[in-house]
Amino acid sequence: MSDVKNKAAMKNTDDLGDFSISSRGMTKDIIKRFLRNKTAVVGLVIIVVLAVCALFPAQISDPDYQTLHLDNAFALPSAEHILGTDELGRDMFTRIIWGCRTSLTIGLTSVAGACIVGVTIGCVAGFYSGVVDNVLMRLIDILMAVPNLLLGISVVAALGSSISNLIIAIGLGSISAFARVARSAVITVRGQEYIEAARATGAGDIRLMVKYVLPNALAPIIVQVSMGLATAILNISGLSFIGLGVPAPTPEWGSMLSTGRSYMRDYWHVITFPGIAIMLTVFAFNLFGDGLRDALDPRLKQ
């Protein structure tokens, strides 16, 4: 009897070893496919640069981004101010670097909150289906009926202009996308044999969803996170552009565009560089998301 148990234990150990080796091989394969996509690598490099700027703005630029220098207003790009100065004499390079921290912080926080809420709703709806699925998805349909920017304007106008309210406004508009993606991924996974095997061993619904269903449905959710960040950055800039975003004097790319549009005919640099920052950020996250989707899709392995 002990020999049988030992053989069974050895077999389970071998299975775990094969699984870990297979997982490592799959990860390496995904990385290789991603690195073969040159445009995705370009997007990743830009994202890394943006992350460094957001994490270490004081080391890259001047820590003082609020002091006014009215005698040096609208200075063109030069050795002293490589991107020029704005209408109040503040260094544009400094404010763009600090604006990177503002935009990425709001974007990451709002998308993270939307991901948690949306994936939870989508996972429950896809796993149980039936009445639960219909009720939850109809609520998501109502949320999807309102455009993200319009929803953000309504929320900020009702709650007031602040960073926390902006995070809530952007996050609410992103919940529906995560819920839809998670639901479709869970529906695909829930009928697999290993789910039925885990259910036969006595695993409860929560354990099935957390340990078996959700980990195998993460690929499209991860891609949606990268795409959602690009949309969030655009919405943040749009709300700030119309005066409902980050309150002054905190630097933010959309608000810099809004204040600079009055002077764009005479001083081109006050709107050019914030616009380029928004464009590069959205472009990078879209490239990265496309490359990640292609790398995680097993049908594109060849």
UniProtKB/TrEMBL annotation:
<dbReference type="GO" id="GO:0055085">
    <property type="term" value="P:transmembrane transport"/>
</dbReference>
<feature type="transmembrane region" description="Helical">
    <location>
        <begin position="104"/>
        <end position="128"/>
    </location>
</feature>
<keyword id="KW-1133">Transmembrane helix</keyword>
<keyword id="KW-1003">Cell membrane</keyword>
<keyword id="KW-0472">Membrane</keyword>
<dbReference type="InterPro" id="IPR050366">
    <property type="entry name" value="BP-dependent_transpt_permease"/>
</dbReference>
<dbReference type="Pfam" id="PF12911">
    <property type="entry name" value="OppC_N"/>
</dbReference>
<keyword id="KW-0813">Transport</keyword>
<dbReference type="GO" id="GO:0005886">
    <property type="term" value="C:plasma membrane"/>
</dbReference>
<dbReference type="Pfam" id="PF00528">
    <property type="entry name" value="BPD_transp_1"/>
</dbReference>
<feature type="transmembrane region" description="Helical">
    <location>
        <begin position="267"/>
        <end position="289"/>
    </location>
</feature>
<keyword id="KW-0812">Transmembrane</keyword>
<dbReference type="InterPro" id="IPR000515">
    <property type="entry name" value="MetI-like"/>
</dbReference>
<protein>
    <submittedName>
        <fullName>ABC transporter permease</fullName>
    </submittedName>
</protein>
<feature type="transmembrane region" description="Helical">
    <location>
        <begin position="40"/>
        <end position="60"/>
    </location>
</feature>
<dbReference type="InterPro" id="IPR025966">
    <property type="entry name" value="OppC_N"/>
</dbReference>
<dbReference type="InterPro" id="IPR035906">
    <property type="entry name" value="MetI-like_sf"/>
</dbReference>
<feature type="domain" description="ABC transmembrane type-1">
    <location>
        <begin position="100"/>
        <end position="289"/>
    </location>
</feature>
<comment type="similarity">
    <text>Belongs to the binding-protein-dependent transport system permease family.</text>
</comment>
<feature type="transmembrane region" description="Helical">
    <location>
        <begin position="217"/>
        <end position="247"/>
    </location>
</feature>
